[in-house]
Structures are given as C-alpha cells and as structure tokens.
Specification:
six-stranded mixed beta sheet; alpha+beta; 9 helices; 13% strand
Length: 282
C-alpha cells in the first residue's frame, strides 16, 4: 500500500489539533507549495533545507508552507507532494511550541543535566525536547543543539512521552546569551574612531540606533535578492561598527529578526554575518 494515506492521515490529524504541517522529501527537504516553485524552479536548492531566492508574491517554502487547512493539504499541488513525500513536518512556532533538537547522546546528557524535564520524542540519533511556548529559532546554540520554534520546521516523529513543560528561561538563554560573533578586535583601541580625545562616536546611543534602524529598513524594504541584500547590509553595519566593539547581541538580534521576517533562515543569517566578518578581516 502507498505511504500516502498514512502520511496524509497523520498530517490531517495534526492539522485538526491546530498544528501547521507540511510534507518533506527524503533528507528532510521541503517542497514549494505553488506551481512556480515545482522542483525548486524558483531557485530553491534541493540539497538544502532552506529555500533559495524566490520571487513569488509570498514566501512559500519550508516553515512558511505549513498549514492547518485540510482543503490545502488534500488539493494540488499538495496532493502530488504527498505522493512523493517521505515524512511529515510541522511548524513548532505556529503551534505555540519550541523544540530543542538534541542531535547526539552527549547533547541529550547535557539537556538532562541542565533543562527542566518535558515531553521527549526519540530521533534517529538523539531526542526532541518539546516545550509549550514560542521563541526565536537558532541553530548550533551549543554542540549538537538546535532550537526550532518560529520560522523553522521539525519532523513529526510521534507524540512523545511525558508532560509538556512551559518554555523555561534556560532554553531562551541559549539564543539570547549566545556568544556574539562581534568582539572588540585587538587593534580596536588604535582604530581612528575617537576624535580629539573624545569617546567613540558609535557609543552615542542615537548614532548607533539610527544606523541599526536604517539597516533594518534596508532589509525590510527589499523586494528581491533578499539573500544579497542581507549580506550587503551586514557588511555595511560591520564595516562601520564592527571594529570598535560597540555592537551587542541585541543589535545583532534586531538585524537577524528583520532578515528572518523576509524569509531568511537563522542559518542563512549566521552564514551571512560570518562571511561579512571574514571579508572585513574581523
């Protein structure tokens, strides 16, 4: 018997419980959900879990494709996608959940020693710990640990066991307190950012905030080439503020949030930031 009925039944059951779902190819790769994106024709890269440049009116890949509408799930192009799908995924943030993805036994041991107990789901190599609550998603928050909530998707591997706990501060801190990639460079004290013996002008709240606000607006207003716009914006911010140590995790989070609102993944944001740092020699 085809795997279609089982996958679709699972998807419809989850959707009936207000869990947004989507089909995945083998290898945890999402489908596009509009005709223009069939077979990644719009630029999505089939070997990656995140979409490439897409000129559709709305973002239609990955987590953004997840839905609770049974008519959508059972109609074209979804009907065709289910016939080729290998598993069901869901959007945790859309269901009011956060998944701590523990990718290996060492990560599981760390979670047991560090995080409040909650519902757990076994995975191929580790576990998903599921909490009630929503937060920003981020990959590689520590070795073997990803956080999946808003703008992310996770495989549906079953309901799991145990009582679901409220999202704790210890999980939120994994993202909020992630070490910044922007550090005062060794030569920061010699950079000609100080004038006439005064303080670095970047430390003036209005100056720095205005720069970050302008960068957010540049990303938000991008109508195409979002990937390139995000990278160029990060490069511009770092070229101005990256050497004096004025940028904080809060500034970085504002830029990442703006980029993710345009459909960028957390990993794309991190890669763009890292590439900009490398280009500038920071």
């Amino acid at each position: 018997m085809s795997a279609l009925p089982a996958l679709l039944d699972t998807a419809l059951s989850l959707a009936a419980h207000a869990v947004p779902v989507l089909p995945l190819h083998a290898g945890k790769v999402p489908f596009g959900n509009c005709p223009a994106c069939t077979a990644n024709a719009c630029g999505g890269r089939p070997n990656m879990k995140t979409p490439g440049p897409c000129h559709c009116p709305d973002v239609c890949h990955a987590w953004a494709a997840a839905t609770t509408d049974p008519a959508t799930l059972t109609s074209p192009p979804w009907a065709s996608a289910w016939r080729r799908a290998s598993t069901v995924a869901y959007h945790p943030g859309g269901a009011g959940l956060t998944v701590v993805d523990l990718d290996d036994p060492a990560a599981v041991d760390w979670a047991r020693a560090t995080l409040p107990a909650t519902r757990t789901v076994p995975t191929t190599r580790g576990q998903h710990w599921i909490y009630q609550g929503v937060m920003r998603s981020a990959n590689h928050v520590r070795p073997g640990v990803d956080v999946k909530s808003t703008m992310a998707y996770a495989r549906w591997l079953g309901p799991g066991i145990g009582r679901m706990a409220e999202l704790p501060d210890a999980v939120r801190a994994l993202v909020v307190k992630k070490p910044s990639t922007v550090r005062p460079a060794p030569q920061a004290v010699t950079v000609p950012a100080r004038a006439r013996g005064g303080e670095c002008r970047h430390r003036t709240p209005a100056y720095l905030d205005r720069g970050i606000t302008m960068a957010e607006q540049r990303i938000t207003q991008a109508s195409s080439a979002v990937h390139a716009t995000v990278y160029r914006t990060f490069l511009a911010v770092l070229s101005t503020h990256g050497r004096c140590g004025c940028l904080t995790d809060t500034h970085m989070a504002r830029l990442f949030t703006a980029a993710q609102a345009k459909g960028e993944s957390a990993r794309h944001c991190t890669d763009a930031w890292t590439n900009a740092l490398t280009t500038l020699g920071l």
